[in-house]
Write a structure and sequence with these properties.
The chain is of the alpha+beta class and about 180 residues long. Strands 1, 2, 3, 4, 5 and 6 form a 6-stranded mixed sheet that branches. Helix 2 runs antiparallel to helix 3.
Length: about 180
């Protein structure tokens, strides 16, 4: 049943998917499918709920506390980056997968939104919309010159949670 919860969202889309699919024989079968499976497994192993939309993996974490959700989501993000790098080391340059990871936190409605016959579990709300909008910025070439796919992009709410509960050192790029 749909219910309102505070969640942490992870949004990870493959960059240049269409171009790579059109120009590289075997890109989907040799790289993308393996990469998506590894990403989904990582999310699930960290108690996240993944949703695959094409080459995009959207996940949310809805345990009881922000601390647990933030930890699980960050752990997923770090593992996804590491796995992506490991998989890319095993393949040709034209088959490498580039993913950016965007994280947000906030209130959303989660659960089976589609009805009785649907088994579609999803999340709707500010953090989901925000990660999607923030991901659009990662497509900008100027932005791509300043970060790499090994960076994790977070919103100000997520930063506030990090500052409150975790002793982490990280670089902040203000987009204002």
């Amino acid at each position: 049943r749909p219910r309102k919860k505070r969640i942490v969202c992870l949004h990870s889309d493959i960059r240049n998917f269409t171009d790579n699919t059109n120009s590289s024989e075997g890109y989907i079968s040799k790289s993308v499918i393996r990469n998506i499976k590894a990403t989904v497994n990582t999310v699930e192993n960290n108690n996240g709920i993944p949703r695959i939309i094409g080459d995009l993996v959207l996940a949310y974490y809805d345990e009881e506390t922000d601390v647990v959700n933030t930890f699980n989501c960050l752990n997923s993000a770090f593992e996804i980056i590491e796995t992506n790098n490991d998989l890319n080391m095993l393949t040709n340059d034209n088959l490498k997968v580039c993913r950016y990871i965007v994280l947000s936190i906030g209130d959303a409605v989660v659960g089976n939104i589609g009805g009785v016959s649907s088994r579609e579990i999803t999340a709707l709300g500010v953090p989901v919309n925000f990660v999607s909008r923030l991901d659009e910025i990662t497509k900008n070439q100027t932005f791509q010159k300043n970060i790499s796919s090994s960076n994790i992009i977070i919103d100000y709410r997520f930063k506030g949670t990090l500052d409150q509960y975790f002793l982490l050192q990280y670089d902040v790029v203000d987009l204002h």
